[in-house]
Amino acid sequence: EELLKSKKIKIGDRISVLKAGKSYEGILMPRIDLGDPSCLVIKLDNGYNLGIKYEKKTQVKLLKRGKPIKFRPARIAMKKDPTKPTASILGCGGTIAARVEYTTGAVFPAFSPGDLLLSFPELRDIANIQGRKLFDLLSEDMTPSHWQIIAREVAKEIEKGVDGVVLMHGTDTLHYTSAALSFMLQNLPVPVVLVGAQRSSDRGSSDNAMNLLSSVLTACKSDIAEVTVCMHGSMSDDFCYVHSGVKVRKFHSSRRDAFQSVNALPFAKVWYLERKIEYLREDFRRRSKTSVRLDDRINPNVGLIYIHPGIKPEFIESLSKFYEGVVIAGTGLGHVPTNPFNDKFARSLIPALKGLIDSSIPVVIAPQTIFGRIDMNVYTAGRLLNKIGVIGNNCDWLPETAFVKLAFVLGHTKNLTKVREMMLKNYVGEISERIGIEHA
């Protein structure tokens, strides 16, 4: 960095680098935050990036001043085709919401209709596209307040008469948002589809185009008037699955088929090249002429706690300082440490959990095994939890879905009897009536 400053070389300038008798020319690129500070990165004329380890004999020369990198929304006129459906695409941030500026390789958020058509020209063949950005946000920064904003904006789009809504969202917490919208957007007349990408648009293995095209197909051409998640269905670029918004979860940090349905089949497969939708289930809400009903009341003061060996009762007791409701991801069939044999090392959580419930803080349990159902009738730990009033017996909800549902329920009531009643009511398929043999 001192060398570049001394030569007044800035990011975006064209430079030459001479090292070990070889000369390289290209545009100076920014180094990633955790990159080697002694490494220069330049974009070659063929489009590839090259890293060069700087040493004392390395010579660096400024060839040409670069122009400041600016992002300009693409100006592409799109005439509405009355023979095609209309999709509204709303941007909530994430890897999928980006456009590459190929001179430098910089990646920018892309959300005008022109940006979307420039990046994904095939969208023209499917639908009339209207798009706008709600916010640029890393999905790990998503909060219940953002869920409320998204729900309100989706409702507005539906009231305008669009044929479907697509939400571009970061993948890390996408399934939390899909669950929240499933409870908040009621009586849906059209599909609402969340989509993300595991690989950014500047990578050859990017999944953003296939995922977005499949999502728009689902939003405009499918009959599934529910909140869904549409993502890669396999490692190949062949089809996407359409998952229920309350029965889906991210299972891998980087694989393109990271999202899977839990204890249920996906609603459909989308073969994007063939523009074909193959339904796998029939138990979904159909398109209709009804009006969407927005219910965005939510209480953000809910915690999600994973039970683990050695967890301290004092920690459970302290939750009352921060939360008005607690979801515990229990082991196995829904267990916590109870120490029925008075082991000298084990400590029971039953008194601490009972203390929360006695303080009018509802406690809900979900299986940290992810697949399967809570059953408190089998072992001592389960029976003790059932006895003190922990909610969740016979439920197969995902921990994340139970967390979102409790926040939604507490937005409507804090009465423990009513909370239990609402939690155990199956609103949008979050509790399976039966689990098929393939998930048993």
Largest sheet: 8 strands, mixed
Rg from alpha-carbon coordinates: 26 Å
CATH topology of the largest domain: Rossmann fold
What's the structural domain tally?
A: 3
CATH superfamily heading of the largest domain: L-asparaginase, N-terminal domain
CATH class category name of the largest domain:
Alpha Beta
The shape is globular
Structure notes:
The chain is α/β, with parallel strands linked by helices and 440 residues long. Helix content is 23%, strand content 23%. The protein has eleven helices and 22 strands. The protein has helices spanning 2-6, 113-119, 123-126, 144-159, 174-184, 208-221, 313-318, 350-358, 380-388, 399-410, 416-423; strands at residues 14-19, 22-28, 39-43, 49-53, 59-64, 86-91, 99-101, 106-108, 128-133, 164-168, 185-186, 192-195, 227-232, 240-244, 248-250, 259-261, 268-271, 276-279, 293-294, 302-306, 325-330, 363-367. The strands form six sheets. An eight-stranded mixed sheet has the order 9-6-10-12-13-14-17-18, sandwiched between helices. It has a five-stranded antiparallel sheet with strand order 4-3-2-1-5, with no helix packed on it. The chain has a three-stranded parallel sheet with strand order 20-21-22. A hairpin with a 2-residue loop joins strand 1 (14-19) and strand 2 (22-28). Helix 5 (174-184) packs across helix 10 (399-410).
Structure characteristics:
440 residues; alpha/beta; SH3 type barrels; Rossmann fold; 3 domains; 8-stranded mixed sheet; 11 helices; 22 strands; globular
